[in-house]
Amino acid sequence: MNSNPTNTREPMRVWIGALAFLLPFLSLVTSFGVNLASFLFLASALIFFKPSRDALVRHWPQVRWVVLAFLLHFLFVLACALLRGERLSVQEKPLRMLLSVSALVLVVAVRAPRRALWWGASAGAVAALPFIAWQRLVLHIERPGGFINSITFGDLAMLLGLLSLAGAIDMRDRRRDVLLAGAGALAGLAASVLTGTRGGWASLVLAALVLGRHAGRIDGRRARALLAAGVAVLAAAWFTPALGVQERFAEGVHEARAWYEGGTVWTNVGTRLELWKGAAMLIREHPVLGMSFDACRLRLAEYAQAGRLDPMVLELPHLHNDGLQALATGGVIGFVIWAATLYAPLRFFLRRLAQDTEQRGPQFAVALGGVFVVLGYVGFGLTEVIFWSMKGSLFYALMVFLLMGFCLNAKEKIG
């Protein structure tokens, strides 16, 4: 079979486009969507092996550092598990993140339509809003989270909204597509607000800085109108007492001050600060390679028994900060390897943002979406371990590799 993508059969192109749609669309409104998309991408790459392999070989110079970062992360986790006598199941997550490269090679091999991804992100955000609004406003759940916890739901809803914004910029000349993408952008922001999640706002600030840096390259009256509408939605959320955004922000500041002044732990912020104090103690003990998470839990319990930490921290499943979690369980070496899975994709997308400055082609919008994903996870990880769950980890890896594939296609002017 000729490996030239132009000879790819149309049904396969439609199939991969459907998977690119389903990943974001099912991510929040089902409990199985992200896992299902992961398996289908991998199975499709195995069935369509030769064109997928040829696509990876052809673009290896452009993608090698990202793929190697995920490979090194998997190998490090596997080595730590073997050396520490941990269950080998701990390497399932990094392995499946690495295998998400199947999404990249398929998108390039069949030249899947990138609009499918924008439609999926927009439709997923629009579907998530009434789902979470029902829980908040009808069922009176103070911190709703759909099928997952409220923090992860709010973070991913925010990310779907930002991806919808990138889609609106890309499809600015198609009125109906822009309307759907605009609705998705606003719905994602609104759904995140309804969860009461504060961590996502840090990612929004990072995204705003990127948008401000490249605002002059965003063409189209509709796209600019959407940016203005997004600002209006955020302002309305801030000044609407019933949503409690201002109250949550002020509450966070008060809780942080209370912890610093008196060590009050029995608050959301106080618990995190106490956990981070414990994390610093763990890191000092094993700074190079860290220790297993089970060992970390035992040491935290010993700190609590010795009166060095409040026992409240033992009720939480992780350290509520991705960087500290990586340092505690992998030491400096593990932290650097984990950080590479963020830095390498970010560098890939930023380099493409800097290309074709005058043409303002489709690669700009796709690369912008990639930057949103990476910086989104950086922001989420400041107050949460967003990579703790399989869903959060796979969504990141699949979305990074999908957007990389669409970037490579867009560079070749494939729409």
Keyphrases for this structure?
415 residues; 17 helices; ligase activity; ligase; WaaL-like
Q: Which secondary structure elements does this structure contain, and how are they paired or packed?
A:
Elements: H1 10-26, H2 33-47, H3 49-58, H4 60-84, H5 92-99, H6 101-110, H7 115-138, H8 150-170, H9 175-195, H10 200-213, H11 221-238, H12 245-262, H13 268-285, H14 293-305, H15 322-353, H16 362-380, H17 390-411
Helix pairs in contact: 1-2, 1-6, 1-7, 2-6, 3-6, 4-5, 4-15, 5-17, 6-17, 7-8, 7-9, 8-9, 8-16, 9-11, 10-16, 12-13, 13-15, 15-16, 16-17
What's the number of helices?
17
| Assembly form of the protein | single chain
What structural class do the secondary elements suggest? Answer: mainly alpha
Q: State the distance separating the first and last CA atoms.
A: 24 Å
- The outline comes out as globular
Estimate the helix proportion, in percent: over 70%
- Sequence of secondary-structure elements: HHHHHHHHHHHHHHHHH
**Proportion of strand residues:** under 5%
Quote the average pLDDT.
85
Radius of gyration: 22 Å
Written account of the structure:
The protein has 415 residues and is an all-alpha fold. It contains 17 helices and no strands. It has helices spanning 10-26, 33-47, 49-58, 60-84, 92-99, 101-110, 115-138, 150-170, 175-195, 200-213, 221-238, 245-262, 268-285, 293-305, 322-353, 362-380, 390-411. Helix 1 (10-26) packs antiparallel against helix 6, helix 6 (101-110) runs parallel beside helix 17 and helix 10 (200-213) runs antiparallel to helix 16 (362-380). The longest helix is centred in the last third of the chain and has 32 residues, at 322-353. It is globular and about 65 Å long. The two termini are 24 Å apart. It is found in: Membrane. Keywords: Ligase, Membrane, Transmembrane, Transmembrane helix.
